[in-house]
Write a structure and sequence with these properties.
elongated; about 100 residues; alpha+beta; two-stranded antiparallel ribbon; 2 strands; 3 helices; 2 domains
């Protein structure tokens, strides 16, 4: 990156005795606040998807618990992360993200 925040990325293919420029992209550095907003948006988007999937998993677990409790126990023994520990990890990760702000 240059001192003025500009940069250039070239994709070049080496064909025996010559180089062919396939693609050339010029970039400008974004303001720190723009980068922070983008990261926050992406993080919150992934976090909401995780919450949705955890909710779906909980619904499926409840259904399996009603229909076949022994199967649920076997699934929980086979995958201990599916039994509540994942939520604790995502909570500690979100706390780390909040401390960085």
């Amino acid at each position: 990156m240059n001192r003025d925040g500009s940069a250039k990325l070239d994709f070049v293919q080496n064909i025996e005795f010559k180089f062919i420029e396939l693609l050339s992209c010029e970039f400008m550095a974004s303001a720190e606040e723009v980068v922070r907003q983008s990261i926050t948006f992406r993080y919150n988007s992934v976090k909401s998807k995780v919450q949705l999937m955890e909710s779906r998993l909980k619904d499926v677990n409840n259904l399996v618990k009603i229909k076949n409790p022994s199967l649920l126990l076997q699934l929980q023994k086979a995958n201990p992360m599916a039994h509540g520990q994942h939520s604790m990890m995502s909570t500690s990760h979100s706390q780390n993200m909040n401390h960085q702000n």
